[in-house]
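Reminder: ligand-aware prediction takes two inputs, not one.
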Amino acid sequence: MSTLEHLTVVRHPLVQHKLTLMRDRDTPTAVFRQLLREISQLLAYEITDNLAMTTRRIDTPVCPMDAPVLDGRKLALVSILRAGNGLLDGILELVPSARVGFVGLYRDEKTLEPVQYYCKLPSELDERLVIAVDPMLATGNSSVAAIDLLKQSGAKDIRFLCLLAAPEGVARMKEAHPDVPIVTAALDERLDDRGYIVPGLGDAGDRMFGTK
Ligand code: URA
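Here is what comes back for the chain with uracil:
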């Protein structure tokens, strides 16, 4: 993958197998959390596929070489609270020097509209690749609001990583933020009348944190 399409579904067998285990209602919290961590790394591998590179002069034990290294400022990961936090640790293992931000949005259960209650972002967002993470792209309302906020804070190069997407959410993102590529493990069928993804996996936050 050299350029990211607006929507990239990662169909790798490991991702799909792990996702099936996560969808299963009988999968316990601890296993769900571990699987989310593993999938987050596989998705992060895809979404960082075409990062800018430069070279650095090093000496191997055999000879000098100009070896490839990442170019530019450290990337910024932005977790959309609270479920986004389930994706953070795994990605940070792959990109340990990433800067981390948080956007707190909850979904009003009646209107399904996002309400912002927290925002703390890294500096110089305009010079970084910003990867916003949230496991569930459902109506797209929270994701669009979070990306609005990132853009208002200066971010120009933004990507969105999620575990599951609904067609409604993808369409909403494409309409509001056509410049933001989305990477996901699956594009599901639809939303139900409560705004849950079908077939989905239920409430991602509740399943990863064991709340109800
Ligand atoms: N948020 C979730 O956690 N699950 C859904 O199905 C939709 C939104």
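The chain has six helices and 14 strands. The chain has one domain: 2-49+75-209. We will return to this case in the review session.
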